[in-house]
Amino acid sequence: MALRKIGEIFTILHKSEANSDGECYKYTYEIIGHTLCSDYLFQEPFLHEEVKLIKREIVLLSEVIKIEKNIPIPPFMLGRKKKYPLDTMEVNDSFEIKCKNKKEVRNKQSSIISITSRNKRLLKNDKKFKTRSDYTNKKLIIWRIK
Questions:
Q1: Residue 107 dihedral angles phi and psi, to the nearest 5°
Q2: pLDDT by residue (tens digit) across 40-71?
Q3: Of 25, 64, 81, 87, which is most buried, counting CB atoms within 10 Å of its CB?
Q4: Is residue 79 part of a domain?
């Protein structure tokens, strides 16, 4: 984490200290300096921020958490952004993945097989793919066959 500048003011909201009325504490601090410290286990020096408490407020969680109305729910997505164009492929389409070495070719092939079998199981689609590894040219080729 980057150190803040001396004089910088920041706020921390402690939701864990919330009481039954939905109130929690909001602390405002100012950086007043940096101290060179050492870690007890590794004995490696590091800079620690010295802070001064400026203000402690009680706020309602309902004021902190903004409730919005009529926000459309995004479509269901599995995992993160797609790395390979498997869902847009039509039958007899193919693409290749260039790799650095034989091990990477094997790893990519394993990933593609895992992705396609997972998609087939979760999305209940009937798409089928074939993969072929070309170790001499360090590439992997993927076809959609169904």
A1: -65, -45
A2: 655 666 667 788 888 887 777 666 666 677 87
A3: 25
A4: no
Beta-strand ranges (E) seen in the chain are: 9-14, 23-38, 45-60, 94-98, 129-134, 139-144
What's the rounded Cα separation, in Å, for the pair 19 and 65?
15
Q: What is the pTM of this model?
A: 0.45
In a domain, 72, yes or no: no
List the 45-60 sheet strands across, edge first.
9-14, 23-38, 45-60
Go through 127-137 and write b for each residue having 16 or more CB atoms within 10 A of its CB, e for each that does not. bebebebeeee
Which ranges of the chain have pLDDT less than 50? none
* Residue at 119 is within a domain: yes
Does the residue 76 lie in any domain? no
Instruction: Look at residues 32, 28, 42 and name the one whose alpha carbon lies nearest to residue 3.
Output: 32
